[in-house]
UniProtKB/TrEMBL annotation:
Annotated EC: 2.7.4.3
Protein name in the entry: adenylate kinase
Keywords of the record: Kinase, Nucleotide-binding, Transferase
Pfam families (UniProt xref): ADK (PF00406)
Originating species: Triticum turgidum subsp. durum (Durum wheat)
Any GO molecular function: ATP binding
Family: Belongs to the adenylate kinase family.
Cited function: Catalyzes the reversible transfer of the terminal phosphate group between ATP and AMP. Plays an important role in cellular energy homeostasis and in adenine nucleotide metabolism.
Broad enzyme group: transferase
InterPro entries found in the cross-reference section: Adenylat/UMP-CMP_kin, Adenylat_kinase_CS, ADK_active_lid_dom_sf, P-loop_NTPase
Length: 138
């Protein structure tokens, strides 16, 4: 993540499959956010007969996504997330201690976004029969 790369497919897939096998998930269902993000991940789920009922694709302008990540700040004391424009800290004391995550630089966010686009294009055919596309502007 520090280099702007995504976590390897197998690591993420193992975590997702482990969670999906839990009794509460089997009883109440599941919602995955940002997964599967690659063809390999989608195929891993398919091979295990794990298939969603619906697949939602959020389309957001690149500038909005980049701004949200680059403006994000973390309070290391409370763990609370702020945004320099959209959700600024309540006071100067909090503002002074906020940090930027190492992967929230413009270059790294842009790199992740390009990787996401390439990967999501490969995932869409797997779920084309379940696809619901939503355009988001904020």
């Amino acid at each position: 993540m520090d280099s702007g790369m995504l976590v390897p497919d197998q690591v993420v897939t193992d975590m997702v499959v482990s969670r999906l096998s839990q009794p509460d998930v089997r009883e109440r269902g599941w919602l995955l956010d940002g997964y599967p993000r690659s063809y390999a991940q989608a195929q891993s789920l398919d091979s295990m007969k794990i298939r969603p009922d619906i697949f939602v694709l959020l389309e957001v302008p690149d500038d909005n996504l980049i701004d949200r990540c680059v403006g994000r700040r973390l309070d290391p004391v409370t763990g609370k997330i702020y945004h320099v424009k959209n959700f600024p800290p309540e006071n100067e004391e909090i503002s002074a201690r906020l940090i930027t995550r190492s992967d929230d630089t413009f270059e790294k966010v842009k790199s992740r976004l390009e990787t996401y686009k390439q990967n999501s294009e490969a995932v869409i055919p797997t779920y084309s029969d379940l696809l619901n596309q939503v355009l988001v502007y904020f």
